[in-house]
Amino acid sequence: MFDNIAGRYDFLNRLLSLGIDQLWRKKAVKYIGETQPKKILDLATGTGDFAIEALKLKPEQIIGLDLSNEMMDVGRKKAIAHNAEAILTFLQGDSEHMPFADNTFDAITVGFGVRNFETLEKGLGEMLRVLKPGGRVAILEPSKPVNAPFRQIFSIYFLYILPGVGRLFSKDARAYSYLPESVNAFPEGMKFVDVLNKVGFRNAKWHPLTLGICAFYTCEK
User: Fold this and answer.
1) Cα dihedral 213, 35, 39, 98 sign
2) What is the pTM of this model?
3) CB 34 within 8 A of CB 60
4) What are the chain's domains?
């Protein structure tokens, strides 16, 4: 599914979020940047937007990991455009079976990908395993607004308009129907914070962004 929409993914992200998704990533990168990470993992990297934003931290290495090679091919072109091939590399792999040693990374970012884990706690456990003690995690996920009037308006957009626009511009009609379905099934807010705590992360917190349409989760090892 993600291979099928790779060519239009960035365009649709900007269109459907009105470009606000870029501000969310900046906020998340600022959080991990406070510890000056040298080695960063961008999990479920997709087309590499999070990894590209993290280049501003001037790390020694960033690895983008994803199952979709077509999505990462877009990211590889971005790395070349930023003259960052020596720093940013993309690997095809499973978030729940990562090919990295324990305590490898200083920071981990995940942009709109945790809800796609087949087994949520297993994927989070792998993240904890490869993160160094004291390392930080920044996770962005779509969420449903808390404010009642805006929640109703957003629900109409999210359930009907967004899938319609997605079907119009992408080759895979299923992809943008899957988005609201996966968001509805995800344990958002404090429920997800509880899962992070259960897995073993420390200082897990939830930060609603843009009236709650995006959830920013932070935690440490």
Assistant:
1) negative
2) 0.88
3) no
4) 2-220 (3.40.50.150)
Q: Residue 114, exposed/middle/buried by CB under 10 A (0-12, 13-18, 19+)? A: buried
Strands (E), the chain: 39-43, 61-66, 88-92, 105-111, 131-142, 202-209, 214-220
d(CA 89, CA 77): 11
User: What is the Cα–Cα distance from 64 to 46, expressed in whole angstroms?
Assistant: 8
Compare 134 and 180 and report the one with higher pLDDT: 134
CA distance linking residue 102 with residue 88, whole number of Å: 20
**SS3 assignment, position 158:** helix
Joined together, the tokens standing for residue 185 give 């099934």
Half-sphere exposure of 149 toward its Cβ, with a 13 Å CA cutoff? 0
Q: How confident is the model at residue 212 (pLDDT cuts 50, 70, 90)?
A: confident
